[in-house]
Design a protein that fits this description.
By secondary structure, the protein is α/β, with parallel strands linked by helices. It is 47% helix and 9% strand. The chain has helices at 36-57, 64-85, 114-125, 142-151, 164-173, 194-198, 231-241, 258-263, 274-284, 305-324, 338-349, 353-370, 379-401, 409-415, 418-427, 449-473, 479-513, 528-556, 564-568; strands at residues 27-29, 90-92, 103-109, 132-137, 154-156, 180-185, 189-190, 207-211, 215-216, 223-224, 227-228, 254-257, 288-291, 297-299, 596-597, 600-601. The strands form five sheets. The chain has a seven-stranded mixed β-sheet, sandwiched between helices. A three-stranded mixed β-sheet has the order 7-14-9. Strands 1-2 form a two-stranded antiparallel ribbon. Strand 3 (103-109), helix 3 and strand 4 (132-137) form a beta-alpha-beta unit. The longest helix has 35 residues, at 479-513.
């Protein structure tokens, strides 16, 4: 992950200030592309105008109309919230620390491999300014206790593993009196300068948490060349939250003030996401937070689609439970500013973006298979306006994402979480459901129903394209415009879906073959199947664009009807069965033996010389 460039010039001085009052964190705005400040101003009226037009264009009597309007409206509201939050990115001005504070490290672990935990312990012990390293082992493994003692860390294991990770952290709080706590997951190895780059911000007495990005050192299918599924969150969204004091704790790679944790009753235990829940409680009680976009620790990203499903399901369940069921919901809890409410609500609803992407995938397929149009009016107008608005959507997000948005990679990774988002939404209302930690030694190519379901969507899309092609080639009448429109959108959706599935397939094959390819080396070259899936519907759409012109020309300039002789061909002309019209009263201008046809007399008489066609209407010559 490429972090945001930190400001070079200003550095906040260490030590007490000459002016009265405590020191406060100061921020500086990062340089943006020209025109970023106007994107939100221009996007909002365009989006509202499009929704107003769509409300009149939607076929409300059909099932597909309200579904389409709901999906598009949700996407528009999500984009407006994103553009509003990320209109300005602020990074804190670095403040050096004298490292004279008492800081303990809490490492939470349950079933992670011992070598993985060992790397984290060694890294924590190497951080300058640390007093003690506490290994909170929910698995109570004797071999880990021996390892911790040998390395110089403190091993702590509780008797009952209640409240998952939050309960483990609260257990660790009872065994330390440190003023500040550095929280690490079992697989996140910190750099020695971690406290030197973060502890100074806690000189501000109002700051409760200093959070850094989550970075990863292993290979994962969520990485591409120069792109990661987490880049937008840690390089754009979290730094932008500094503006509204809404950057939140993400569970690892952070330093927290002990007094702030005690003020909110410890780490929150009523949801599956104790990190964002605890941060929300702190913000509601007036505490502040700082996000430092500098990679100071690295861990292990999920390496299989099955583990991604389990992880994102837990995140979705915790976020939606906090939003819809908890008394600490940002929708109604007291103490938050309006900007903080919007920021937290948008982050929690972000765990349902996969559901929205799934609806976008299935809607044109369902419209094709049922021949149900979700709109009224001319299809060409609807397609032109909608495709133009999609381009406006992607362009605005690309501008505000500061290089972290990829139209295919970002959309595909969000689609991959659709089933975990749906399952998490139902799990949000099951407060007693327990979630297991993400496995760090899972097989990359292990079976997952998510993969089967996504390939099933590909099969449905191909079947729908075949149906669209049959309608178009068979001149389907009123259904032909609908088939063309659905084919275009199905093609775009297939491109997004295959951009995720085909690199995933290559990644799993390499893992099965034992190929230790470095991280972020997954090929992004278009696959032949993806190219074919793109070209065929585009040719279909091109034919649909040319067809109306051809039909118009045919109506205005009809072709002459063929005579029986022309229909018979030029090989064996049998003229004996032709009906001979009665001879005209006047003399004929044709020589004997010439047969008059609808196009004129034959240019050559049998056995005679060639003659020019007559000027007056042709007649039948006598034998």
């Amino acid at each position: 992950m490429t972090p945001i460039q930190l400001p070079r010039d200003p550095i906040a001085p260490a030590g007490p200030r000459s002016s009265p009052g405590p020191w406060r964190v100061r921020f500086v705005q990062t340089a943006d592309r020209p025109g970023v400040r106007w994107v939100l101003v221009l996007y909002v009226p365009v989006a509202l105008a499009y929704l107003l037009w769509l409300a009149f264009a939607v076929r409300w009597t059909a099932w597909s109309g309200p579904v389409m309007f709901t999906v598009i409206s949700a996407d528009v509201l999500t984009n407006i919230a994103f553009l509003w939050m990320t209109r300005t990115i602020l990074v804190p001005i670095h403040r050096p620390s004298s490292l004279d504070r008492i800081v303990d490290v809490l490492i939470t672990t349950r079933n992670e491999p011992i070598p993985v935990v060992e790397q984290t312990i060694r890294g924590a012990l190497a951080v300058r300014g640390i007093r003690d390293v506490l290994v909170l082992d929910d698995g109570d493994r004797p071999e880990l206790a021996v390892l911790a003692g040998r390395l110089g860390a403190i091993h702590l294991a509780r008797r009952e593993s209640v409240d998952a990770k939050a309960g483990n952290l609260n257990f660790g709080l009872r065994h330390t009196d440190a003023e500040f706590l550095m929280i690490l997951d079992a697989d996140h190895v910190p750099q020695p300068q971690f406290l030197e780059r973060t502890l100074g911000y806690l000189d501000d007495p109002s700051i409760a948490v200093v959070q850094t990005p989550q970075a990863y050192y292993n290979e994962s299918f969520l990485f591409r060349r120069g792109w990661s599924a987490n880049d937008m969150f840690y390089n754009c969204i979290q730094p932008a939250k500094n503006r509204s004091n809404a950057a939140f704790f993400v569970g690892t790679s952070a330093v927290l003030r002990r007094r702030a944790i005690d003020a909110v009753g410890g780490f929150a235990t009523t949801t599956a996401t104790e990190d964002i829940h605890t941060a929300l409680r702190m913000h509601a009680r007036g505490w502040g937070s700082v996000f430092v976009p500098e990679v100071l620790a690295a861990g292990l990203e999920v390496e299989s689609l099955r583990e991604l499903y389990q992880q994102r399901r837990r995140w979705a369940a915790g976020s939606m439970g906090l939003l819809l069921r908890s008394s600490d919901s940002p929708l109604w809890t007291r103490g938050l500013t309006l900007a903080q409410r919007v920021s937290y609500t948008s982050s929690m609803l972000g765990h349902q973006q996969g559901t929205q992407r799934l609806a976008v995938q299935l809607l044109p397929i369902a419209c094709t298979l049922t021949l149900t149009a979700p709109f009224t009016g001319r299809p060409v107008v609807f397609l032109a306006i909608t495709i133009a608005f999609v381009a406006v959507n992607w362009s605005s997000v690309w501008m505000h994402a500061r290089g972290t948005f990829h139209p295919l990679h970002t959309e595909g990774s969000q689609l991959a979480t659709c089933f975990s988002n749906i399952a998490g939404l139902f799990s949000a209302f099951m407060p007693h459901e327990r979630f297991r930690p993400t496995r760090k030694n899972a097989r990359r190519d292990e079976h997952s129903f998510v993969k089967v379901a996504l390939w099933g969507i590909v099969a449905l899309a191909l079947a729908a394209l075949i149906r669209d092609a049959s309608i178009f080639l068979g001149r389907g009448g009123p259904a032909e415009p609908l088939a063309i429109g659905c084919a275009i959108f199905i093609t775009l959706n297939l491109l997004v879906l295959l951009d995720f599935l085909l690199p995933l397939r290559a990644y799993e094959r390499r893992a099965a073959a034992g190929d230790a390819t470095p991280a972020r080396r997954i090929s992004t070259r278009p696959h032949p199947v993806a190219i074919a899936t793109l070209v065929v519907p585009l040719l279909l759409a091109g034919g649909a664009a040319v067809a109306p012109a051809a039909i118009s020309v045919e109506r205005h300039f009809p072709a002459p009807r063929s005579s029986p002789v022309q229909a018979a061909g030029h090989h064996a002309l049998d003229l004996s069965n032709l009906e001979r019209p009665p001879a005209p009263a006047g003399p004929s201008t044709c020589s004997p033996g010439i047969t008059a046809m609808s196009s004129g007399c034959s240019p050559r008489c049998p056995g005679g010389a060639a003659r020019s066609p007559p000027r007056r209407p042709p007649t039948h010559c006598g034998a």
